[in-house]
Amino acid sequence: MTVKRIGVLTGGGDAPGLNPAIKGLVYRASERGIETVGLSDGWLSLLDPPFDPVPLERSTVRRWDRDGGTNLGSSRTNPFKTPNALGERIDRSSEVIANIEKLGLDAIVACGGEDTLGVAARLSQMGLAIIGIPKTIDKDLAGTDYTLGFDSALRNVTEVIERARTPAGSHGWVQVIEVMGRHSGHLALWSGVAGQADIILLPEHAFRYENVYRLLNDKLGDSTSHPRDPQHPRYSVIVVAEGAYAEDGELIIMDDRHDAFGHARLGGVAEVLSRRILSDTSYEARSVILGHPQRGGPPSPVDRIMGLMFGARAADAVAEGEFGNMVSSRGVAPACDLSLVDISMVLGKIDTVDVSRLYDTERYHLKGIGM
Questions:
Q1: DSSP assignment, residue 357?
Q2: Residue 371 lies in a domain
Q3: Does residue 115 sit within a domain?
Q4: Mean pLDDT for all residues in the chain
Q5: Based on the structure, what is the number of domains in the chain?
Q6: Per 3-state DSSP, what percentage of the chain is helix, strand, and coil (rounded to 5)?
Q7: Both 30 and 125 in a single domain?
Q8: Residues 81-100: tens digit of each pLDDT
Q9: Phi and psi (nearest 5°) for 37?
Q10: Is the pLDDT of residue 258 over 80?
Q11: Which of 177, 212, 208 lies closest to 191, judged by CA?
Q12: Which residues are catalytic, by number?
């Protein structure tokens, strides 16, 4: 199969590193005589006309590596469960494949996380020529050691944790900071360590309120007896992933609505925890939910490099007809090895924190780090 024209799309949540990946793809594809067009708003762009693919020349994407988010736009559209006029979710995947043919595209490069690449894997099984590029700030995709956006989000969250110390220290608060992480606590764990949080709560291990109170007491003691002693800590920082939950509780959700992939919108565990600390202890607690800004801003150097590398490797895979695969990173980014893995690896699998190796379940912190 000779590939002459390909489409690239970005789906799911935006992430720094997507635009560098598109640039890397366009540059390498042009070197190999392949035309690239951009498809707006993820899989949505392939369901209903007008399709309006955007020609992507080297001159078009020359400065894209500096941009955060995705210049192609994104959506959480699931072609296998798309609402119709009656609100029923129906399978329109065959329309996606037919529309790709109408656009004269020989292959698709899909950049996304478990949902976007899960769709890609199923379309691949239906015969679509496709290559995946891994993206998610949660770093929870199976089959790869790195996903675009993680390092930038880690930078952003760490900066917020550091800034939270100023008001917490001034007022003697327990500051509870909620970060993204539905099933996986990589972002919470490593930002918590980098920001020197006292307690880190992950989705991989249910926490106990009594244990949190004990850890706070171990550090703060009776903070009212020495409020101005510079030698005694008078504040504490807790980092909690949005998917973390107590042993006697359930996931905290913001509302009952679910997206096209069946996910409820999580959020609020930091507020619940801070209220429990207020009611059950003598400590003053405040919560903050970081939300979408944690994945905002320009890509970090690591995400710029990895994006360019992922994009170039995807273009090579397309040119060589190695469809049905996802670009995979093994080793420490960016000095890592890139290869291809079967894209079906993302179906039903999540890369979670290895609690037995990394997490102290008694201290709610990284093993081997004294706080």
A1: H
A2: no
A3: yes
A4: 92
A5: 2
A6: 35, 20, 40
A7: yes
A8: 998 887 888 999 999 999 99
A9: -125, 150
A10: no
A11: 177
A12: 138
